[in-house]
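Complex 497.
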Amino acid sequence: MALPSNPTDFTLAEAREAVSSKKISSRELTGAFVKAVETARPLNAFVTETSDRALDMAVASDARIAKGDIRPLEGLPLAIKDLFCTKGVRTTAGSNILSNFVPPYESTVSQNLWDAGAVMLGKTNMDEFAMGSSNETSYFGPVTSPWRARASNAKMVPGGSSGGSAASVAANLCLAATGTDTGGSIRQPAAVSGTVGIKPTYGRCSRWGIVAFASSLDQAGPMTRTVRDAAILLKAMASVDPKDSTSVDMPVPDYEAGLEAGVKGLRIGIPKEYRVDGAPPEIDALWSQGAEWLKAQGAEVVEVSLPHTKYALPTYYIVAPAEASSNLARYDGVRYGHRAKNARDIIDLYEKSRGEGFGSEVKRRILIGTYVLSSGYYDAYYLRAQKLRTLIARDFTQAFQKCDVLLTPATPGPAFAIGEKTADPVSMYLNDVFTVTVNLAGLPGLAVPAGLTAGGLPLGLQLIGKAFDETTVLRVGRAVETAANFTAKPERWWRAA
Ligand code: GLN
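Predicted structure with glutamine bound:
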């Protein structure tokens, strides 16, 4: 295997091989990424850089490697979304209300990564409490995508809410990153940033120590440059966890092992309801192209129907805010987080702390959530949304009687300019039409880069699998990746910025 000359261009798989065979030390590799992170500050991809800790972790990894004690991610530098609690390292969830929060504990997923030998470069920027599709709701300011449209200097969004992670992976500031996905926050930013992201089945990764948004939808997952890297990272992140009763006690397969098995004989379902009016023709063309690629490799393509798809977005925007309003009740300025000064009494303290601590999108969600759960409206909104959720999940069960995996577009369009959609929350919510269904049904979904628009911006395809069948999703993803041969990279304009 010929390695790229610049270590920040390594894939996770290449770096694993290079570090464990001592072609490069973790110290040297980590040093290169620390420098890349510093140079890329104009992107605002990190809320907190942990360079000293990264270099210490790298030195410790090198000592283990010298002794031949090599764990699966030994010495490999990663970026962590700032929604994962990291012991002793500030964890903000992109919010002012947690801007001074230093957790006394480590999330299970990040602990799994450190136990596998990984190195932490820092905490990535994100939409506040993971609410958003563009990273513009962050208290710490928007992330600028490394991508720009052809012949344009306009600053583009990296997608959201895991925008800092997507930008870091796309700009080679880390080997890979963690994300979380409640309605699309791994897949949408991955797709519009030309990277790979998988939201595993609900329960595959522990939610313990991840700041909660909507607990019945939230899942952690990897964001990487290749499908193989996603397979490697998911294996390390996933586990059953006694501290999360919704994590599932099933063996974690070796996702990498089955990756090159090909798609011969697999049935690929095309859900006709995912063809939306007004979507750019490039999206449909890429979708058909994806089906052709899989057919050419021996898969059978079948049309399927998911009749309740049109209710998914309204259902999500009732269920997610309802759960968020309950989860966010804990931020009261008393137990931890931002505390308002000069409060007259306890009620005033709550009101001022929350008023100052939360941004407008978070307040909007709390208001909607409280409304749909209030007596008199509960039956009309929340209960009906729960019923629709069941029907949406049933659509998938029925579709999977006819196929092994579903192929859809990942997003209804490419990245947009910063500021373009902030005035209209509903147009922002529409970014997730193809992804929220998957969270409502609890299924695994993968975004793979598949092409560029005429304007030179990345587009992705989505593969949706049966519950706990990440193996097939990744295997088909690998087939799409091979056919698409997506090699475009953003120009590194930020180096001169
Ligand atoms: N964009 C969606 C929202 O704003 C999804 C966010 C997510 O998956 N965390 O709710």
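Residues 130-133, 161, 181-185, 213, 320, 432 surround glutamine (CB under 6 Å).
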